[in-house]
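User: I'm writing a short report section on ligand binding and want a predicted complex to refer to. Could you take this sequence and magnesium ion and write out the structure as tokens? A short remark afterwards would be nice.
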Amino acid sequence: MFLPSERRQHVTVEVLLEEKTIKERIKQLAREIENYYKDKTDTLHAICVLKGSIHFFSELVLNLNMNVNYSFVHVSSYAGTESTGRIRVKSWVDEPLQGKYVLVVEDIVDTGNTLRYILNYLRKYKPADLKVATLIEKEKYQHGIPIDFVGFKVQDVFLIGYGLDYDEKYRNLPFIGYLKNDT
Ligand code: 5GP
Ligand code: MG
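Assistant: Sure. The structure tokens for the complex follow:
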């Protein structure tokens, strides 16, 4: 696929995961998640980590056959294709989470720094249970954070689409892909 805005830079977008593949996998994840909570609670408190998780979160909760409360946090660490290492919290949960069954919904776990930061803070609210679902986990790092529900494991390549951006572009591609220089 050739995106007009990139024409001058001779960059193409390669598809890695088709929309259909993503949606099918999310349905399976929803079954795994329901299965995990079925003897524990009938109400899940799901936290969408903005902005990248927006489409994954939406598709996941639409497929969950249980009560789901929504929270949103907005956290960022990337500039371009590089993690800055500094995590900026732009907005945070304001609902009480004590005693709740909390599921953090992430788009992608790379170094794990963002997730570690989020989990450390959420633990202070004393939820009954704190789990993590991510659409993508990069295989490169040994971040040591147990991730309970993983959509896809991928090699170390900078991904775009289905919520993932490159400097705020490409989030609305319905598939997941990567940029390739055609030189
Ligand atoms: P980490 O802190 O685990 O290194 O990175 C987590 C956050 O960085 C993700 O939630 C996501 O917002 C961003 N990120 C990590 N890898 C990628 C990538 O390949 N593509 C894009 N667009 N964002 C990424
Ligand atoms: Mg993210």
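A remark for your report: The beta strands are 11-17, 43-50, 67-79, 82-91, 101-109, 129-138, 149-154, 159-160, 176-181. The mean pLDDT is 91.
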